[in-house]
Amino acid sequence: MKIGLDFDNTIVRYDDVFYRVALEQGLIPANTPISKVSVRDYLRSVGKEAYWTEMQGYVYGSRMDDVQPFSNVIETLSAARDAGWELFIVSHKTRHPFMGPKYDLHEAARNWILTHLVVDGEPLIGSDSINFREQKDSKVERVNELGCDVFLDDLPEILNATNFSDSIRGVLFDPDDHHTDFTSAKRVRSWFEFKEFLEI
Ligand SMILES: [Mg+2]
Predict the structure, then answer these.
(1) In angstroms, rounded to a whole number, what is the distance separating the alpha carbons of residues 78 and 63?
(2) How far is the CA of 89 from the centre of ligand 1 (A)?
(3) What predicted TM-score, i.e. pTM, was given to this entire model?
(4) So where are the chain's domains?
(5) How many angstroms separate the alpha carbon of residue 93 from the centre of ligand 1?
(6) Rounded CA gap, 196 and 190, in Å?
(7) Which SUPFAM superfamilies does the entry mention (predicted)?
C-alpha cells in the first residue's frame, strides 16, 4: 500500500517564514496576520507584487532551514511506515524561481525532506521516493505511475484533475478551511485527522 504526498503547504507550513522575511525586508507592518496569504495580499494591495514573486524564490531557495512541517507530520509518517505503508512525495514546482537569483528549488526541497523528516537519524522518505515535476499534469501522471492508494494534497485541482486515477483515494488537506464546499473526496483539517483516516 502506497501513500503519495504533496509537499508545499501540505507537509511544510510557510506562514511564519513569509511573515518573518517580509518583516525583515521592511515590506509589511508588524500587525499583518502571520500567514503567507496575508503577506501576499498586503503586498498586492500596495502594488508590490514583484516583491512577493521574488520573495517566494528566496524562501523556497534559501530559507528552507527556517521552515517547519505542520504539527504531527513526523508522527503520522512514522506510524504509517510502521504500519507497512510505502511513502512517496510527489510535488510540482518550477526548478528555478520566476524572478531573482537562480536557486535550485527542487534541490532545496529535497535537502529539507532528507534533513527534517527524520526519525532516529534516518529519513522517513528516501531520496528515491522524492519526485518533483515542473507541471501539474506530469505530477498527476507520476502519482498514477507509482500506483498510489492514497494521495494527500492541499489543492482541489490536483485531486479533481481529469487524469487523476479513479483508483486513488484523494484526500484534501485544508487546515484553514478554504474549501469547506469540497465534496468530491475526503477533506481533513490536520495531520491528526489524516492519521485517523489511515486508521493507524
Ligand atoms: Mg501544495
Answers:
(1) 25
(2) 11
(3) 0.94
(4) 2-13+68-198, 15-66
(5) 9
(6) 10
(7) HAD-like (SSF56784)
Q: Given pLDDT bands bounded at 50, 70 and 90, which one contains residue 103? A: very high
pLDDT digits (tens, 9 = 90+) for 172-187: 999 999 999 999 999 9
CA distance 94 to 7: 13
Distance 19 CA to ligand 1 centre (A): 19
* Ligand 1 centroid from CA 112, angstroms: 15
- Side-chain half-sphere exposure of 81, counting CA atoms within 13 A: 16
What is the full DSSP assignment across 49-92? HHHHHHHHHHHHHH-GGG-EEPTTHHHHHHHHHHTT-EEEEEEE
For residue 87, the cross-strand partners are 3
Closest CA to 137 of 120, 114, 117, 162: 162
| Alpha-carbon gap, residue 121 to 116, rounded angstroms | 10
Percentage with pLDDT > 90 across the chain: 98
Q: 527542487: which residue's cell?
A: 106
DSSP 99-157: SSS---HHHHHHHHHHHHSEETTEESS-GGGEEEESSHHHHHHHHHHHT-SEEEES-HH
